[in-house]
Amino acid sequence: MPAGVAAGATVTPARATGRTDTSATHRSSADPHLRRPFSLAGLPSFGPFLAYQCAIDIGYSAVTAADEDECVVPGPGALDGISKCFADTGGLAPAEIIAWMRDTSHQHFDRLGLRFDDLWGRWPTLIDWQNVFCEVSKYTRLSHPHVAGVAGRTRIKQQFRQTPGAVDYRFPPKWGLPAERTAVLRNQRAER
Predict the structure, then answer these.
(1) DSSP code of 138?
(2) Which of 56, 109, 170, 178 has the maximal Cβ count within 10 Å?
(3) Where are the domains of the chain?
(4) If we measure between CA atoms, which residue out of 42, 45, 93 comes closest to residue 72?
(5) Could you give the count of Cα atoms lying within 13 Å of 138 in the half-sphere of its Cβ?
(6) pLDDT score of 96
(7) Spatial distance between the Cα atoms of 57 and 84, rounded to a whole number of angstroms
(8) Lowest mean per-residue pLDDT among 8-22, 93-107, 126-140, 161-175
(9) Are 52 and 132 in contact, with CB atoms under 8 Å apart?
(10) Which residues pair with 72 in a beta bridge?
């Protein structure tokens, strides 16, 4: 079993939790919702991760029924973050580790006594956990520079600059969040 940062953490394969298809290459051929956007992977300069990112972005719109929690393609930052969090993944693929985090994160927050404020009942999805591991990769370059990870990166590309005013966060309508937090398209604003 993987030796995670959290003592006593146990990784259970996604297939054991009832969620089996975490690989986008498998899901894209079987899932009509994700197949079309993910087919960008066949275009020049589009590898699997960039195509996946574009498919996720398209999936936030109303033009497709794609669900961002259907599959995950770990990017280079997530692969590095996973390697920094787990000394041993128990033979699980990176996509399975991400699915395991999604499926067991409630238990870990409870076990560690951490309160997690979700978005009005919307728990993080596969893409969210993929992003968490990517952020781990970046933040640990400064906080734990001695932990190299698989990428071996040490440089931070940009420094944080605080926005002078408050950020008015808006989320995709598909998420079903409160109307005051939901994005509205320009042409829909004119109709209101």
Answers:
(1) H
(2) 56
(3) 14-167
(4) 93
(5) 13
(6) 96
(7) 27
(8) 8-22
(9) no
(10) 23
CA dihedral 28, 32, 34, 37 (to 10 degrees): 100
Longest dimension (CA), the chain: 55
Q: State the pTM of this model.
A: 0.78
* Identity of residue 112: L
Tokens matching residue 71: 């599959």
- Half-sphere exposure of residue 20, counting CA atoms within 13 Å on the CB side? 3
CA distance 42 to 47: 8
Average pLDDT on 114-134 reads 95
Which segments of the chain are extended strands (E)?
A: none
Q: 91 is written with which tokens?
A: 């033979």
Residue 79: name the closest of 18, 25, 130, 13 by CA.
130
- The DSSP call for residue 142 is H
State which of 19-23, 79-83, 183-187 shows the largest mean pLDDT: 79-83
Residue with tokens 């781990």: 136
Which tokens sit at 7?
A: 């003592």
**Where residue 191 falls among pLDDT bands split at 50, 70, 90?**
low
Q: What end-to-end distance do the CA atoms of the chain give, in Å?
A: 55
